[in-house]
Design goal:
Layout lengths: L14 E5 L12 H7 E3 L11 E11 L5 E6 L4 E3 L2 E3 L1 H10 L3 E11 L3 E10 L7 H11 L8 E4 L14 H11 L12
Parallel strand pairs: 8-9
Antiparallel strand pairs: 1-3, 2-3, 3-4, 5-6, 7-8
């Protein structure tokens, strides 16, 4: 794991997962654009004359003192709000822990004061109904205030998926902004 300046992270410090090996390049085979985007030279160690390349994954992780890795989120999906970088995964996990949602997706939408406001779209769990007020209350109990969604939208049906089968946050974000006519999320984000 590396910091943005290319130095190694300390235990429990979030950083970008950088790796190399025989099988890490299969997803980039015959894709020059992705290869150029992800393969970068590692910071030079003393004595090396040729650059060594590795895959800069775009994943933010942290390693505990024993070396176990914990996924935090994708760098390109991080929400930048009130000067903080927030992982949508942490918000989604909090919503799943309520047992009131079947699916959850958190994302940032433009906000004139915060930079981005956090919005979550959820589907109700099979056993019952989810409502915005109770889900927001659960988030306020668990999350720091800057991570509490400005709005939680409950909708029926499965959430859209990308070709990899993951919930498509980008599509949801675009749909939300278009439906809101480009207005920023509700002021309940603390603005």
């Amino acid at each position: 794991m590396l910091r943005e300046d290319g130095t190694a992270c300390a235990p429990n410090e979030p950083g970008e997962l950088v790796h190399r090996g025989a099988l890490v390049g299969l997803g980039y085979w015959n894709d020059p654009q992705k290869t150029a985007e992800r393969y970068k030279p590692l910071p030079r160690e003393s004595g090396l004359t040729l650059p060594e390349y590795a895959v800069f994954s775009g994943d933010t992780v942290r390693a505990d003192a024993e070396g176990y890795l914990y996924f935090i989120g994708r760098r390109d999906e991080m929400i930048k709000t009130s000067g903080y970088r927030v992982s949508p995964t942490e918000i989604e996990e909090t919503l799943y822990q309520t047992k009131r949602v079947g699916e959850a997706a958190a994302f940032g939408v433009p906000h004139p004061v915060l930079g981005q406001a956090i919005v979550a779209i959820v589907t109700p769990a099979a056993e019952g109904a989810a409502d915005e007020a109770s889900l927001l209350a659960a988030c306020r109990e668990t999350l720091p205030s800057f991570m509490v969604p400005a709005r939680i939208v409950v909708r029926d049906g499965p959430l859209p998926r990308n070709p990899n089968g993951k919930i498509d946050r980008k599509t949801l974000s675009t749909q939300y902004v278009e439906q809101a006519d480009g207005e920023p999320a509700a002021a309940s984000a603390g603005a």
